[in-house]
Design brief:
Blueprint (H helix, E strand, L loop, with lengths): L13 H6 L2 E2 L6 E2 L4 H10 L9 H22 L6 H13 L3 E4 L5 E4 L5 H17 L6 E4 L8 E4 L11 H19 L12
Antiparallel strand pairs: 1-2, 3-4, 5-6
The structure holds zinc ion.
Length: about 200
């Protein structure tokens, strides 16, 4: 089953949860949607009930993902938006035919067309990215401080000083690295063979 695949990292924003399906972009990258079935799993967890997905649709999804990440990175670093990223995001937003529906309980669901439901879901993700990139929601784009990650994330903390895409992963790893570095700097008393090459 899917246990053999890397777990998902779902955040609070749809589009950044989506870009987080590829992690460690500047290191040994981890592809968290390696197969069409895994994209279906991810979409299900994100509120889109989809029966099937083709390899071509997975390729579309990854293209959208990288375009969102490129655009968000540009915003975070005050650069101009890459033209190709803008085009891909817009194409997906225009193509999607998902309809938001209100549930009797006051929740929101997505009604997807039966023929191209993956594209419909990608359209919703593209529209979510547009909302975040254009400042429709309260927050600030930033890049993760981890040098092997550098993920673009959306900081909604009150102080807007979040440094890592995720505290549980990148944040803790950086903290640990600093701890080890500090220990190395202090000469360790009375430990045989503690020097490392
Ligand atoms: Zn990170």
């Amino acid at each position: 089953m899917s246990a053999e695949y890397p777990e998902f990292r779902l955040g609070t924003e749809l589009s950044t949860s989506f870009t987080a399906t590829l992690t460690e972009r500047r290191g040994d990258s981890v592809e968290r949607i390696p197969t069409p079935a895994r994209l279906v799993d991810w979409l299900a967890l994100s509120g889109f009930a989809i029966n099937s997905c083709t390899a071509a649709q997975l390729a579309l999804a990854r293209e959208l993902r990288e375009s969102i990440h490129a655009a968000a990175t540009a915003i975070a670093t005050d650069d101009a938006l890459p033209e190709s990223a803008v085009r891909v995001i817009n194409d997906h937003s225009i193509r999607g035919r998902a309809a938001a529906v209100l549930t009797p309980e006051g929740g929101r669901e997505w009604r997807l067309s039966s023929t191209s439901s993956v594209e419909d879901a990608l359209g919703v993700i593209a529209a979510d990215a547009i909302a975040l990139i254009t400042g429709q929601r309260d927050g600030r784009w930033a890049l993760c401080a981890s040098p092997s990650c550098r993920a673009a994330f959306f900081d909604t903390s009150r102080s807007r000083t979040r440094r890592w895409c995720e505290m549980n992963t990148c944040g803790n790893r950086q903290k640990k690295a600093r701890f080890v570095a500090n220990r190395r700097r202090q000469p360790e008393p009375a430990r045989n063979g503690s020097s490392t090459s």
